[in-house]
């Protein structure tokens, strides 16, 4: 199945294999709806964070805590991973499985890099800054909002890794294509959420 | 769009003779992905929880039958009111709503199943295990006791030190996940699976109500999930969201809860509006008056429903500007709701009205719900609300809209669609007995509570002093509650007796059916429609009847029908979440047994549960379900 141009059982794949079947179209539509729900989920977390971000309870404040160069590097990794996931989908639309696989791999690796930086950041706060979940309302809101996003990244990494395996095993078909397309939608969504986290949590924390 | 293509994969040629693995008995119910069977599961599970919630209500009313009663102690009473509200809303009426949606929506839109049969099953099982987890609290150290709204700091560790509120937060998160999954499923189903010719403005009103309700679920449930997560973190991980000493803010909980909580009441009532809009035209032999205004009003109610949450918080102290704005937005909702009331009245006006049991419930719904709406407008006035707040006036109001509105609507819907779901007509005589005992009992119970509230009786008190003029009205209220119980028992007897009769209901048992579900056998075959019907207008079946046709015009030739395979994975995923929730809840507990302490305190139980859930998800992803086919010969053989 891993020829340069994927072929389905009955002939060549259409240009947008993710929308070739009703199941595929349903999946894409429902995932858009799911992302609507996710937006409310993160919206509520952002609202909570904004309400509590100055309640430091004599613990470290955002301005004292955050180290922007590290966060900027993490942001760069995640933004680039969104770009590479676009390249992956473009490769899929060309039917080029090798390129699709490679771009998905790059996406996963960049996501992994982001996650490692985030875990490092959290561990520094907990061990050296005495800034844990229970320190203040600000700390609880920070770890919950950023941690929810981090958990989404971790899930996305595992998800896309599983899909790379399926792509190699089952090839690019009208069954695997919607899965890959939907995972790319997910990845863009958590990227957009991060843009807001970078702005609202980190930049506003430094200057606001 | 919809079209017949739902049966065929373009890329997968049909494999003739490919038959499915069939389960029987219990395994059939655990593994089913058929929307009609899932509807029955929802109905039994919802009925079970409704019964539990009803018994809790009876116990509450027995305690309040006379002043200074000692039937229950204060703690038990608090647990009962908390569990009554939580159980009825999340585990009682919502599953019955989902039961009717599952039973009817695919049939009404001319589809062979929902868009995601697997997710449908997953939604049911997560709901059920969330509800079971919540109710386990009765036997595992005490039920939640902070009210169904779980206001902080009362629901915080300081005032609720048992695991009761943990069962509430984690149980509702799991059950809420199931509801959210169901909501997304119905949105996708209605958008993509409609039969050819069924445009949005040709959809039956119940399909519209389901569509809008699902949209509210999608945008409201994630908010409460976050609120419950924050409260869980406060209680189990010692976070500070609502802990004032740590810089937290208890009012934040109220905002998050009601941003979900108010849309939730429209999640409950819009499906009832949909049911009433089906029943009344059928038994008036007239098309629904003002169909397009009905659609518009439904959308407007959903939209406004998200902007009124702070009317639950008038006395919290948000200030006069906020109170005034939320007063006005709340009163605005009376406009689209009034449009609906008049549309139903004008539908009956001049119609050939038949008062069958479903139509009795529908006709009883209109004035009862209107009374609840009027007290709603009274409560929307912020200055007056300072007097009404936390009194029995509020209790009377929301029982008028939820019981007098939703529950009467559900009774109408259950009697109306029972022959379609089970192939047997419920007894009309017993149905009318159910109606009269239930509605008289209902008004006895709750009408007097308006006056109790205006006279100053507070809600949630476990007893009261004599000689405050509360005594007689409370006695009347309790007598009414028992009469409602009698109505429920008659309904159960009706179900039992009906189940012993032969399943001989015809396709169109009410003879005046207007919509597609009445064009196919009762109960429908598992593929619903042998041929997808062609829809030529609103009230598609009625239109064909008026044109002299006996059946729908098919939109496709008879062909092989693709069906999804039964699977146990949704059940396993839900079991996994259930185990993980229990594990997380007890992760900070000291156990007498060192093995138990080791397993729980190191999050091993939680990890095991998550492993089952994520492992099942992985299995679902790795092993494609190709489904199976029903061949034309089998269709003809029926």
Explain what you see.
The complex is a heterodimer of chains A (208) and B (638). Chain A has a single domain (3-8, 18-207), classed as Cytochrome c oxidase, subunit III, four-helix bundle (Four Helix Bundle (Hemerythrin (Met), subunit A)), CATH 1.20.120.80. Chain A is 77% helix and 2% strand. Chain A has 6 helices and 2 strands; from the N terminus they run E-E-H-H-H-H-H-H. Chain A has helices at residues 22-52, 62-65, 68-94, 97-128, 137-170, 176-207, and strands at residues 7-8, 11-12. Chain A has a two-stranded antiparallel ribbon. The radius of gyration of chain A is 20 Å and the shape is elongated. The relative contact order of chain A is 0.19. By secondary structure, chain B is mainly α. In chain B, 63% of the residues lie in helices and 1% in strands. Chain B has helices at 25-31, 35-63, 74-108, 117-136, 164-192, 205-236, 250-284, 291-305, 320-332, 334-348, 357-380, 382-388, 392-422, 428-454, 471-499, 540-546, 569-585, 594-601, 604-622, 632-637, and strands spanning 561-563, 628-630. In chain B, helix 7 packs parallel to helix 10 and helix 11 packs antiparallel against helix 13 (392-422). Chain B starts with 24 loop residues before the first helix and ends with a helix. In chain B, 55% of the residues are buried. At the A-B interface, helix 1 and helix 5 of A face helix 5, helix 6, helix 7 and helix 19 of B.
């Amino acid at each position: 199945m891993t020829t340069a141009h994927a072929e389905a059982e009955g002939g060549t794949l259409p240009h947008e294999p993710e929308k070739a079947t009703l199941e595929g179209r349903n999946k894409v539509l429902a995932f858009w709806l799911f992302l609507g729900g996710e937006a409310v989920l993160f919206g509520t977390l952002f609202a909570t964070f904004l309400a509590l971000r100055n309640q430091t309870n004599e613990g470290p404040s955002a301005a004292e805590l955050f180290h922007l160069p590290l966060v900027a590097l993490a942001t760069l990794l995640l933004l680039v991973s969104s770009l590479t996931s676009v390249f992956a989908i473009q490769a899929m639309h060309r039917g080029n499985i090798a390129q699709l696989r490679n771009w998905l791999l790059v996406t996963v690796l960049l996501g992994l890099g982001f996650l490692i930086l985030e875990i490092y950041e959290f561990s520094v706060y907990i061990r050296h800054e005495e800034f844990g979940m229970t320190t203040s309302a600000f700390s609880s809101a920070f770890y919950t909002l950023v941690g929810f996003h981090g958990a989404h990244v971790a899930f996305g990494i595992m998800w896309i890794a599983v899909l790379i395996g399926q792509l190699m095993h089952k090839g690019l078909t009208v069954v695997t294509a919607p899965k890959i397309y939907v995972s790319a939608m997910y990845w863009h969504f958590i990227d957009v959420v991060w843009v807001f986290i970078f702005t609202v949590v980190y930049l506003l924390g430094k200057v606001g | 769009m919809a079209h017949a293509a739902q049966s065929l994969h373009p890329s997968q040629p049909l494999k003739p003779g490919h038959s499915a693995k069939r389960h029987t008995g219990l395994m059939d119910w655990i593994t089913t992905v058929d929307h009609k069977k899932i509807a029955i599961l929802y109905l039994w599970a919802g009925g079970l929880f409704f019964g539990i919630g009803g018994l809790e209500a009876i116990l509450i009313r027995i305690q309040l039958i006379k002043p200074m009663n000692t039937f229950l102690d204060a703690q038990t009473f608090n647990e009962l009111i908390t569990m009554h509200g939580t159980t009825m809303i999340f585990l009682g009426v919502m599953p019955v709503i989902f039961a009717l949606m599952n039973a009817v929506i695919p049939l009404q839109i001319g589809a062979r199943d929902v868009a995601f049969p697997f997710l449908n099953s997953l939604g049911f099982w997560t709901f059920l295990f969330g509800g079971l987890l919540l109710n386990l609290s009765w036997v595992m150290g005490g039920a939640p006791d902070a009210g169904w709204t779980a206001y902080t700091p009362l629901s915080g560790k300081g005032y609720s030190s048992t695991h009761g509120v943990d069962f509430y937060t984690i149980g509702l998160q799991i059950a809420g996940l199931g509801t959210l999954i169901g909501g997304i499923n119905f949105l996708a189903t209605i958008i993509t699976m409609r039969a050819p010719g069924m445009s949005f403005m040709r959809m039956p009103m119940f399909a519209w109500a389901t569509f809008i309700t699902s949209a509210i679920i999608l945008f409201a449930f994630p908010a409460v999930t976050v609120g419950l997560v924050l409260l869980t973190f406060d209680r189990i991980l010692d976070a500070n969201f609502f802990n004032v000493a740590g810089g937290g803010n208890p009012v934040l909980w109220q905002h998050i809860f009601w941003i979900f909580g108010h849309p939730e009441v429209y999640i409950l009532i819009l499906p009832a509006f949909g049911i009433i809009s089906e029943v009344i035209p059928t038994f008036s032999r007239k098309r629904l008056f003002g169909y397009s205004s009905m659609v518009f009003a439904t959308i407007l109610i959903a939209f406004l429903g998200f902007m009124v949450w702070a009317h639950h918080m008038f006395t919290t102290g948000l200030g006069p500007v906020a109170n005034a704005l939320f007063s006005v937005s709340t009163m605005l909702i009376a406009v689209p709701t009034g449009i609906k009331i008049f549309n139903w009245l004008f539908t009956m006006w001049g119609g050939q009205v038949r008062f069958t049991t479903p139509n009795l419930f529908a006709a009883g719904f209109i004035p009862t719900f209107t009374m609840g709406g009027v007290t709603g407008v009274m409560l929307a006035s912020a200055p007056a609300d300072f007097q009404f707040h936390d009194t029995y006036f509020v209790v009377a109001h929301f029982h008028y809209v939820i019981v007098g509105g939703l529950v009467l609507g559900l009774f109408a819907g259950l009697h109306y669609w029972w022959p379609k779901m089970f192939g047997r007509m419920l007894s009309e005589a017993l149905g009318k007995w159910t109606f009269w005992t239930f509605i008289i009992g209902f008004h006895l119970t709750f009408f007097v509570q308006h006056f109790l509230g205006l006279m100053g009786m507070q809600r949630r008190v476990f007893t009261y002093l004599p000689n405050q003029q509360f005594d007689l009205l409370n006695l009347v209220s309790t007598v009414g509650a028992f009469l409602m119980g009698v109505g429920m028992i008659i309904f159960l007897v009706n179900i039992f007796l009906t189940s012993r009769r032969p399943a001989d209901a015809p396709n169109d048992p009410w003879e005046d059916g207007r919509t597609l579900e009445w064009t196919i056998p009762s109960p429908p075959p598992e593929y619903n429609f042998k041929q997808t019907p062609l829809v030529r207008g609103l009230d598609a079946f009625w239109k064909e009847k008026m044109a002299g046709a006996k059946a729908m015009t098919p939109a496709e030739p008879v062909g092989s029908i693709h069906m999804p395979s039964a699977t146990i994975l949704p059940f396993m995923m839900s079991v996994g979440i259930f185990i993980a929730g229990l594990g997380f809840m007890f992760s900070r507990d000291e156990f007498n047994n060192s093995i138990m302490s080791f397993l729980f305190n190191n999050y091993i139980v939680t990890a095991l549960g998550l492993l089952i859930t994520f492992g099942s998800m992985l299995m679902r992803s790795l092993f494609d379900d190709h489904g199976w086919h029903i061949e034309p010969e089998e269709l003809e053989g029926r």
